[in-house]
Amino acid sequence: MDNCKVSACIITLNEEDHIREACESVSWADEVLVVDSGSTDRTREMATECGARVFENAWPGFAAQREFAASRARHDWIFSLDADERVSEELRASIISLFSKADTDLADGYRIPRRAFYMGRWIRGGGWYPDYQLRLYRKAKGSWRGAHIHESMKMHPDARIETLKGDLLHYTVRNAAEHHRMIGERYAPLGARKMLEQGRRTSPLKIATIGPATFIRNFACKGGFRDGLAGLSIAAFAAHHAFLKHLQLWELQNREPADSPPEKS
Predict the structure, then answer these.
(1) In terms of domains, do 25 and 98 share one?
(2) Which of 96, 144, 240, 257 has the most Cβ atoms closer than 10 angstroms to its Cβ?
(3) Alpha helices in 145-227 (DSSP H)
(4) Are residues 15 and 118 in the same domain?
């Protein structure tokens, strides 16, 4: 039945190192759709070679781009994938089994455990696993939300959500320099802006303590120590991220409006 067909949607920007493997990992889908936001490499050409339908759309933000992709999909079910993610064999089998049974009582959305590959190993602790992601859903039963960062699928109140077996494999940053750069250029600034817009505020005491507290939580409480040097690095970068985000929030909340008149002496 057409209402049980799946559109796999991938959003991209300069992903020629990843796009072929990403498309191949969702070759089981009834269509593969790629939305590119201005790549200057061969991302679009490679996606086309893989049989994907390719669209171009200027970058509107993560949630809006995922929504744009879903709006162009031909089928009722959406599987949303990032270019640096892969569908494991177990997950592939779970999805195919789900849609191959005519009498299956399908839920409206499915959560999937995501496992990250970092510093040459699959990560078990530090809060990075199972990192459930809702990526398979009925298009009419949910939408992507999130203005700046960490977008998420918000299902309708009456939607039924279940969990699939099998991991979504996430090939994260290539090295420590890239990890550091992403925190400084993307995650911390966007996170600080999001906190400001939510009405949250920070303080010098919070700035001083958030880093050590985050490190202890990730390395000790969440089992990051089980991943050796990789777990230590994850905890340290998480602490740096938390510190930098709160420091930038402090700068934002104490910034004088550009049109404020100068104080009279």
Answers:
(1) yes
(2) 144
(3) 176-182, 188-197, 204-216
(4) yes
Q: What is the pLDDT along the chain (265 residues), one digit of tens a residue?
A: 557 899 999 999 999 999 999 999 999 999 999 999 999 999 999 999 999 999 999 999 899 999 999 999 999 999 999 999 999 999 999 999 999 876 678 999 999 999 999 999 999 999 999 999 999 999 999 999 976 677 889 999 999 999 999 999 999 998 999 999 999 999 999 999 999 999 999 999 999 999 999 999 999 999 999 999 999 999 999 999 999 999 999 999 998 565 445 555 4
122 plus 193 within the same structural domain:
no
Cβ count near 110 (within 10 Å): 22
DSSP codes of every residue in 10-71: EEESS-TTTHHHHHHHTTTSSEEEEEES--SSSHHHHHHHTT-EEEE-----HHHHHHHHHH
Write out the DSSP string of 115-145.
EEEETTEE--STT-SS--EEEEEEGGGEEEE
d(CA 126, CA 133): 17
Q: Are residues 148 and 214 in the same domain?
A: no
Contact indicator for 239, 220 with CB cutoff of 8 Å: no
